[in-house]
């Protein structure tokens, strides 16, 4: 949890102690309010219930004493011969008081908040009061003319009176003791409340002081560390590497300062290393310029030879383009002839198919003739049978039938031969049709091949034309390259002057960054990026020769 508090935001840390103090004060205040409410409730109970009950019981005890005195006075007046109406008024007053006190005791018993001891004591008091009241009323009722009997009731009444007084005094004492206990409990509760409130204030104050000190230790030292690192960086000291102990705003500031010093250290080391490498590269550039001058002269000679070779190549490509155009024209003619041959073959195939259809029709007709001959033979046979049945009369008809039968046989034989010839012709025509179809397919393939050859020759012709234009462009580029080569010779001298100026600027850069203080490990070796940059400069200063 301590680490979690350390990593919280600075604003949260600053608000922790005041917030905790406010919460503690609120809790202490609520506790005091609750305690005071309890004490107030106890005091209200004491003032509204306990004290009035004690007063009422004490008053009842005094009233019973007064009634008892009045009963004795009534008996004394009766013995002294007082007037009857005066004694009767006194007796009525005594009876009314007894009934009133009896009702008051019953109401007292009906109160719901009485304790068990109080209720028991009040029950005993009421029972004794009822006995006392009954005896008192009986004594008053029989005193006229029977004063001796009334005296015996008075003796019993005195016994109940003493018990009633004793119970009332005990009840007053019990209620007084209960009230004293309630007062003592209230004082103890008040003392506990004071102790609790003071303890709460003390704990809140101590916790607030501790939390404030902890927040101070979490906020102020990191800020002081950040201030020291910033001052060191401002004076050129980049050897500081502060490490944050938390992830809050102060920790982020310290981490950012560490990143800044680390990045600045790398930048300074890169600048130093780059300046030294630039100084070395400047010398290599000077040597490369001399080598570049020699290569430029060689490149110019090679360009002249290349220009002559390209001229010869241009002439050869033009001849090839002309030959390809002639071949294209011939391939177009052959394609047209092959297409015409394919058309003729297609017509032959159509004719052969018509012949095949006609032969099939002839074969069908021969079949019909063969059927007719067969039927004729059957009829002739039937005629011969009928002639035989006719005897001599049908002999001439039998001769005719025999001839017809012979003629039908020869017709059927001839029809079979013709049918065989027609079938053989149909078979040969089918074979010829297939051959002619194959010849047509071959002719179409030949036409397609001739078209593809014509297309390829056309592409060759177009390519040769493009090559001619490309070679012309190459010739133009070679001429421009020759001009650029002459310009490069002039640039070599300018590069030498630039290399000297670069060497001087590199020396000045080393002097500028020497004011920074770095960690020992940061100056061991130059970063790979600077070495690669210097290597690239050297390679660009000495390009390979062409040709």
Query: What is the CATH topology descriptor of the largest domain?
Result: Helix Hairpins
Q: Sheet with the most strands?
A: none
Overall 3D geometry? flat
Structural class: mainly alpha
Question: Strand-and-helix sequence, N→C?
Answer: HHHHHHHH
How many distinct helices?
8
Q: Percent range for helical residues?
A: over 70%
By CATH's scheme, which homologous superfamily of the largest domain applies? Answer: Methyl-accepting chemotaxis protein
Overall pLDDT confidence: 71
Distance between the termini: 76 Å
CATH domain class of the largest domain = Mainly Alpha
Number of separate strands: 0
CATH architecture of the largest domain: Orthogonal Bundle
- Strand residue percentage: under 5%
Q: What does this molecule look like?
A:
The protein has helices at about 1-5, 10-80, 85-110, 115-140, 145-235, 250-390, 395-515, 530-540. The chain folds into two domains: about 1-230; about 250-540, Methyl-accepting chemotaxis protein (Helix Hairpins, Orthogonal Bundle). The chain contains eight helices and no strands. The two termini are about 75 Å apart. The model is unreliable at about 525-545 (pLDDT under 50). With about 550 residues, it is mainly α. α2 (about 10-80) packs antiparallel against α5 (about 145-235) and α4 packs antiparallel against α5 (about 145-235).
Which key features would you list for this structure?
Helix Hairpins; 547 residues; 2 domains; disordered C terminus; flat; mainly alpha
């Amino acid at each position: 949890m301590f680490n979690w508090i350390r990593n919280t935001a600075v604003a949260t840390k600053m608000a922790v102690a005041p917030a905790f103090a406010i919460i503690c004060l609120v809790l202490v205040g609520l506790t005091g309010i609750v305690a005071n409410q309890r004490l107030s409730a106890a005091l209200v109970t004491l003032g509204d219930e306990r004290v009035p009950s004690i007063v009422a019981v004490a008053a009842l005890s005094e009233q019973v004493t007064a009634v008892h005195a009045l009963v004795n006075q009534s008996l004394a007046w009766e013995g002294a011969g007082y007037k009857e109406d005066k004694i009767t008024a006194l007796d009525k007053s005594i009876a009314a008081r007894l009934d009133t006190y009896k009702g008051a005791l019953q109401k007292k018993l009906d109160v719901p908040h009485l304790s068990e001891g109080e209720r028991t004591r009040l029950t005993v008091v009421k029972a004794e009061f009822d006995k006392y009241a009954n005896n008192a009323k009986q004594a008053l009722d029989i005193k006229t003319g029977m004063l001796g009997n009334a005296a015996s009731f008075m003796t019993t009444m005195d016994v109940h009176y003493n018990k009633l007084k004793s119970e009332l005094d005990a009840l007053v004492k019990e209620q007084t003791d209960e009230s004293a206990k309630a007062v003592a409990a209230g004082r103890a509760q008040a003392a506990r409340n004071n102790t609790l409130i003071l303890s709460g204030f003390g704990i809140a104050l101590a916790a607030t002081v501790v939390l404030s000190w902890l927040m101070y230790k979490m906020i102020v030292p990191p800020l002081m560390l950040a201030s020291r690192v910033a001052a060191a960086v401002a004076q050129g000291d980049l050897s500081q590497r502060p490490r944050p102990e938390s992830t809050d705003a102060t920790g982020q500031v310290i981490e950012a300062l560490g990143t800044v010093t680390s990045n600045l250290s790398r930048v300074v080391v890169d600048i130093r290393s780059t300046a030294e490498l630039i100084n070395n590269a400047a010398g290599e550039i000077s040597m490369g310029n001399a080598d570049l001058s020699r290569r430029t002269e060689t490149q110019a000679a090679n360009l002249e030879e290349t220009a002559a070779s390209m001229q010869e190549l241009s002439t050869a490509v033009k001849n090839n383009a002309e030959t390809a155009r002639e071949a294209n024209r011939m391939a177009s003619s052959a394609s047209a002839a092959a297409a015409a041959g394919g058309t003729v073959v297609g017509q032959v195939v159509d004719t052969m198919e018509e012949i095949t259809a006609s032969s099939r029709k002839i074969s069908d007709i021969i079949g019909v003739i063969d059927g007719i001959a067969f039927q004729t033979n059957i009829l002739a046979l039937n005629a011969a049978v009928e002639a035989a049945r006719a005897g001599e009369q049908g002999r001439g008809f039998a001769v005719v039938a025999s001839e017809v039968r012979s003629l039908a046989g020869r017709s059927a034989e001839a029809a079979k031969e013709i049918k065989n010839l027609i079938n053989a012709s149909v078979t040969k025509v089918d074979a010829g049709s297939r051959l002619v179809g194959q010849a047509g397919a071959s002719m179409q393939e030949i036409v397609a091949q001739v078209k593809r050859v014509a297309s390829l020759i056309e592409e060759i012709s177009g390519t040769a034309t493009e090559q001619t234009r490309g070679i012309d462009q190459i010739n133009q580029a070679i001429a421009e390259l020759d001009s650029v080569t002459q310009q490069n010779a002039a640039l070599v001298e300018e590069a030498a002057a630039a290399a000297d100026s670069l060497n001087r600027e590199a020396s000045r850069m080393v002097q500028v960054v020497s004011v920074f203080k770095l960690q020992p490990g940061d100056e061991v070796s130059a970063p790979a990026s600077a070495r690669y940059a210097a290597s690239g400069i050297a390679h660009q200063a000495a390009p390979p020769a062409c040709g």
